Structure formats: structure tokens, C-alpha cells
TrEMBL record:
Keywords: DNA-binding. The lineage of its organism: Bacteria, Pseudomonadati, Pseudomonadota, Alphaproteobacteria, Sphingomonadales. InterPro entries: Homeodomain-like_sf, HTH_TetR. This is HTH tetR-type domain-containing protein. Residues 4-64 form the HTH tetR-type domain. It comes from the Bacteria. It holds the Pfam family TetR_N. Residues 27-46 bind DNA. One of its GO terms (molecular function) is DNA binding. The keyword Lipid biosynthesis does not apply.
């Protein structure tokens, strides 16, 4: 079993135990036993018990980050998300991991340790969004307005993520892929402080494709 598989195995069991017992009532030994690894292995892969849930918790956030990284300049936000958001065909394991993540996010308000891991993942997403916004606005990633736009957009995504998770866990509500795309694109468009959601004029394609590094050094 390679490193990533081991981390995921431990993460899935930690998530399951946190959901069943709570964070305070779950120790490293219990996580190790559930994952069929040694306690030493747990600490070799994770800095503390709370961080064990990170691989499961951040999977959907990382997938969304990749979707946004691949957003074509000549496509609107709505059209991109409608095409790029998952529409089925995920493996049972991926679906199970997504379900665990939704349940963990729904607990964030009650479990500060889970919330800390979740918020840290969104901080990393915000950093990745600097490049997305800079590319679509013909600006440097160091530009204040770019960073402000990334911050407000990621805050909106985080609010939608939590609201959807709570509705799914507490109310049994389910969402089709097209509904998720609409919710996400609507929140991003409302939160954007720069006009980045519509197709980018071809006049700035050259900058967005190849001149960002020079702008970042300016």
C-alpha cells in the first residue's frame, strides 16, 4: 500500500470514528486499530489526530479547485460549471468519501477541531484562486483587488458548502449536479468583486496565457 492509500485508509477510519464518537472521545490508538495499522504509522502520516481527517475532508475542495484551474478563458462561469461539475459515474469509493466529507462539514459548527481543518483547506483554495482571478482579470496575483476577489469568492463557496452539507445531513436533502452547478455559480457571481465570470475578451488572451509571470514580478 503506497503513502496516499495509507493516508486515505487512516483518514476514512478517523472520519468514521469522529462521527460516531466525537473528536474528544477518539484517540490515535483507536484510529490505528480501525485502520489496521500501528499507532506509529498514524503519527508518521499525520501530525495529530485531528489532521487525520484532512484527506477525506479536502477531497471535494481539491476537485473543485482543479475544475476552476481548468476554466477556459472564453467560457462563462455558468457554462463551465454546468459542463465540468460531476454528473455521475463516480466510483462507490469516491461517493463514500464524499458522504463522509459532507457529514464532517455539517459538524463544523459543533466540532472546532474539524472546523479548523476545513477552514485551512479553504485557505489553500483561496491561494489557488489568486491565479484563476489574475488570469481572467489581466492582473498580477499580487494585486490587492485580485486577492480581495479570491477571498470573497472562496468565502461564498465555503458558505454554500456548509449550507448544502447541513441540508443533506439534517434535512435529507439531495442535489442533482445541475443544481449544485447553479448554486455554486450563483454564489460566485454574487461574491466576485471583479468582472471575471463572463468570457474574457480575446484581446487579453495573450497576457493570461503567457505574461502572468512578468506581471507578478512587477
Amino acid at each position: 500500500m503506497d503513502r496516499d492509500e495509507t493516508r486515505l485508509r487512516i483518514s476514512r477510519e478517523a472520519a468514521r470514528l469522529f462521527l460516531e464518537r466525537g473528536v474528544a472521545e477518539t484517540g490515535g490508538d483507536a484510529i490505528a486499530a480501525a485502520a489496521a495499522v500501528s499507532t506509529r504509522t498514524v503519527w508518521r502520516h499525520f501530525r495529530n489526530k485531528e489532521s487525520c481527517i484532512e484527506p477525506v475532508l479536502v477531497t471535494s475542495i481539491q476537485r473543485f479547485a482543479r475544475i476552476m484551474d481548468e476554466w477556459p478563458l472564453d467560457v462563462s462561469l455558468e457554462d463551465h460549471l454546468r459542463i465540468a461539475m460531476p454528473v455521475g459515474g463516480e466510483s462507490p469509493r469516491l461517493i463514500a468519501d464524499g458522504t463522509l466529507a459532507v457529514k464532517l462539514v455539517a459538524l463544523c459548527a459543533q466540532e472546532p477541531d474539524i472546523r479548523a481543518i476545513w477552514l485551512d483547506a479553504y485557505h489553500l483554495l483561496e491561494v489557488r484562486f489568486h491565479a484563476v482571478i489574475a488570469r481572467r482579470s489581466n492582473r498580477s496575483t499580487l494585486d490587492f483587488d485580485v486577492r480581495m476577489c479570491a477571498a470573497t469568492i472562496v468565502a461564498a463557496i465555503r458558505i454554500i458548502d456548509q449550507a448544502i452539507s447541513i441540508a443533506a445531513v439534517s434535512g435529507g436533502q439531495s442535489y442533482a449536479a445541475v443544481e449544485l452547478a447553479e448554486l455554486m455559480s450563483g454564489a460566485i457571481r454574487k461574491a466576485a468583486t471583479l468582472p471575471v465570470c463572463d468570457p474574457v475578451p480575446r484581446a487579453i488572451f495573450r497576457f493570461a496565457a503567457g505574461d502572468r509571470a512578468g506581471a507578478d514580478r512587477a
